[in-house]
Amino acid sequence: MAGGCIKNFFATLGCLAFLVIVGLGAWVFRDQLGDAYRKVSGREPPFGAGADSTVGVPSLEALRSAERKESTMAEGRDGFVRLTADEVAALVERRLDPGVREAVDSLRVVLYEDRLALEGRVRLDVFGRDLLGPLAGMLDSSEGLRMAGALEVLEPRRLAWDCDEFVLVGFPFPASVIPALVNRMTGRNDGAFPIPVPETVGDVRVRPDGVTLYRRVD
Question: What's the whole-number mean pLDDT along residues 86-104?
Fold first, then answer.
């Protein structure tokens, strides 16, 4: 009977290892899998951003457009401004801490209802071996990253991006570890990812079609 239990244990362990390998493979080759699915079915794959979200990528044109909209907000000419996904991506990229910006590339944002996600590749030396644990020895120096959470006005001139989802190479970190991972990227100690905005911003709303900044009412 003991031998049977041992066999069952190792069989279960083997299945778990297989699922982890399959999951990592699906994440690493997600773009190729998506292309193959589109060719065969003629539809978007059932993973990725989805119909209820919008993907934005940074560009100089989007940055200039976003800065013009922020100027109208800062000068009090409009009660609100709506930023597109591309404009949000451009602002996030420009306003990342310089050390973080150097560690992240292929950045894009995904807008959901009341949630914003950042995806890209990140240098793992940002986090250190103490936080990554055994994963540190299994991964490349730069790996796929996804962070997601809600936006709120933290204080004058700053939005707080409260991340409750943190995924590296398809591995989701537990909620208890996320604040420490975010702190390594920001140099802060409160677990928040601040994004600078004009002082006149008093509220924010995230939707798939854009991020709306509302003027502060004194």
Answer: 85
**Confidence (pTM):** 0.70
The tens digit of pLDDT for each residue in 164-174 reads 999 987 788 89
Instruction: Indicate the DSSP class of residue 49.
Output: S
CB-based contact 81:64 (threshold 8 Å): no
Tokens of 28: 């690493």
Domain parsing of the chain, residue ranges: 2-41, 54-215
Q: Give the residue from 194, 122, 185 showing the smallest Cα distance to 161.
A: 194
Q: How is residue 191 annotated by DSSP?
A: S
Distance of alpha carbon 86 from alpha carbon 90, whole angstroms: 6
How is 151-177 classified by DSSP, letter by letter? Answer: EEEEETTEEEEEEEEEEETTEEPPTTT
* HSE (side-chain half, CA atoms, 13 Å) at 127: 26
Tokens of 153: 């006005």
The CA–CA distances, whole Å, from 120 to 15, 19, 123, 189 equal 30, 24, 10, 23
What span, in angstroms and rounded, lies between the C-alpha atoms of 144 and 142?
Answer: 7
Rounded CA gap, 151 and 145, in Å? 19
CATH of the domain spanning 54-215 = 3.15.10
Q: What spatial distance separates the first Cα and last Cα of the chain, rounded to whole Å? A: 74
